[in-house]
Amino acid sequence: MDARQHFSELLAYLQGQVGGEEGFTLAYTAEVSSFIRFNQGQVRQAGQVQQVYATLSLYQGQRHAESKLALSGVPEEDLTRVQQSLQRLRLILPTLGDDPYLRLNCEAWRSELAAAGEPLDAAAMAEQIVSAGCGLDLVGFLAVGPQYQGFASSWGAFGWYAARSFNLEFSLFHGNGQAVKSAYAGEQWDVQAFARKLDVARQQLEFLGRPAKALQPGTYRAYLAPAALEELVSLFCWGFGAQALASRGSPLQRLFNGKAELSWQVTMEERIEGGLAPAFTPEGPRQPLRLISQGRAGERLVSSRSAAEYGLIANGACSGEYPLSLRMHGGELNEQDVLQRLGTGLYIGNLWYGNFSDLPAGRLTGMTRFATFWVEDGQIQAPVNTMRFDDSLFDFLGPQLEALTREPELLLPGGTYGSRQTGSMALPGALLSRFTLTL
């Protein structure tokens, strides 16, 4: 299936059918994904999914309705589905009331980007994973393949995005049932980079055979690996949205009200280049934004609906007003020096089951899990039993933040429910002077 051609044919049909006082938008998503599951270091299940979805929205004045279609990728079949959907929307539209906050982007913008380079070879990647994991109880899941997104409107907007990426999440299990979890993701598979990831996990696996250390509730020096920091950042990043801030429901309210600051080391941005998300949304072209600048509040994500409701200027944010390609700047800490700089404390590889314990105060809670170790004098001593943490982002990204690792790690969403998710985060590891464990 030529996704770009398929999208163009659907658009051309609609342009010939809709006119006068009517307007339309067409959003398009497609993927050709290979999914490979590993167990005990061997391929246990492999399959491929090809799917296409389109969302057709019809507008007349301040009224609008939409229909989501599952398509086959065969133009003759899909044009019939689009025609039937258009007819249904025309019947529905007169029954609806006006939407007072509808603000359509009627600009004729254009954005088009397609990934270059060789296609990813899922079979070759699987062979390399099996070979590198020989003798290990490796359990994992690999998702790989091209993803496509398109958007067009009757007012001349046109966006197209085609990207290839992979996301491997894997765990190494010890004979006692404990595990080390890791991940490797990106646009180009590098067998040497994967081997380094696997080697770090293999080294950590050796410590899981030691008796676990039980810690008392309290505060401890800690290092949060990028995957652990992702769990925390993903909990509060929706707080950059204009609607959340205007309604005073954002966990970042104190920061944007000027009542709190973070460490000068913290700079976060919503980027266009370098991330794995389209340069557009149904709201229009996305804008690069400096969300936090050296610990101080920066720009916020503003959708067209929030712009209309609160008198702001829209900047292409998605309707949920959360970052699609968040990047946190790195610091001065070399990754190989993490344990020495930590000295004595906790090395936390992952955090799980995160939630808010006090949203207005920015307090987050959750559990430690895979690859959490007790470190003394720069050396891993023992795994740590699962414990609950409870701490404020204004503390662990504020005065408790000692250092950030130099190179942010690209982290892709692992969700595949309905379809593979798009977007990305690039986060460093964080060395904290203290982190609070409660039980």
UniProtKB/TrEMBL annotation:
<feature type="domain" description="Metalloprotease TldD/E C-terminal">
    <location>
        <begin position="217"/>
        <end position="437"/>
    </location>
</feature>
<dbReference type="InterPro" id="IPR036059">
    <property type="entry name" value="TldD/PmbA_sf"/>
</dbReference>
<dbReference type="Pfam" id="PF19289">
    <property type="entry name" value="PmbA_TldD_3rd"/>
</dbReference>
<dbReference type="GO" id="GO:0006508">
    <property type="term" value="P:proteolysis"/>
</dbReference>
<dbReference type="GO" id="GO:0008237">
    <property type="term" value="F:metallopeptidase activity"/>
</dbReference>
<dbReference type="InterPro" id="IPR045569">
    <property type="entry name" value="Metalloprtase-TldD/E_C"/>
</dbReference>
<protein>
    <submittedName>
        <fullName>TldD/PmbA family protein</fullName>
    </submittedName>
</protein>
